[in-house]
Amino acid sequence: MNKILGFSGLAAAALLSGAAQAGEVYGGGGFPGVMLGYAQQLDGRFAVRGDIATVGRLDVRRTEEGIAYSGKLEAQRVGAFVDWFALRGGFRLTGGLTFNTYKASLSARSASGLSIGDNTYSGTSLDVTIKFPKTTPYLGIGYGHHAGKGWGFVWDLGASIGKAKVTANAVGFPDNPQFNADLERELEQLRKGVGKLRFVPQATVALSYKF
Asked: Which of 172, 200, 168 is nearest to 75 (CA)?
């Protein structure tokens, strides 16, 4: 609700600050999903806009370090952006903030046991959560949202910059030093792998209408 109110406030502020300029609605898709937004020209070189994009919740299956996980992926974000038309055409540079829900909740369970490290442990389960920051800076390039009237075409390519965090909960043999050592080694390898992801990409296309 707070994100929606913030998005509405951005649109209202844009309308008040640029009432003499063209307003624009747009919708499309790509990653991170189906998108709907509003843009407001401030002058010939700048525009402000906000949009909402989501894929909802998806079932995922993934193998990491020899362990098969299954679970849910959530990917959605609200964005607030400033576009700079440096060349006074449709091409632009974009900066802003995104307010994110990028989260994977994964579980590994097996009746025959899980292979953790060099050992197999029966009666063991492992729950892992991979989550990106809720608020991240955004940098990108794109085309569209410039001054004009009627229908138009929009594309964006950029990234929300932030590092994923990995947390885990294991059920097994808490008093077994070998189990704890194997588990920590597996989790450290998982953190290193996910830690390479320091941004969430965006690649979207949309149709717009300026009025």
From this structure: 200
Sequence-distant (6+) residues with CB within 8 A of 175 are none
pLDDT digits (tens, 9 = 90+) for 97-116: 999 999 988 888 766 777 77
Q: Please give the residue range of the domain that contains residue 199.
A: 2-210
Q: Return the pLDDT at 191.
A: 76
Over the stretch 133-185, which tens digit does the pLDDT of each residue have?
999 999 999 999 988 889 999 999 999 999 988 887 777 666 778 888 888 88
How far apart are alpha carbons 2 and 101 in whole angstroms? 13
Give the other-Cβ count within 10 Å of 26's Cβ: 22
Note whether 128 and 106 are within 8 A (CB). yes
CATH number of the domain where residue 105 is located? 2.40.160
Domain count of the fold of the chain? 1
3-state secondary structure of 94: strand
Alpha-carbon gap, residue 75 to 58, rounded angstroms: 9
C-alpha gyration radius of the chain: 22
Give the pTM.
0.77
Q: Are 145 and 47 in contact (CB under 8 A)?
A: yes
Tell me the two tokens of residue 77.
């974000």
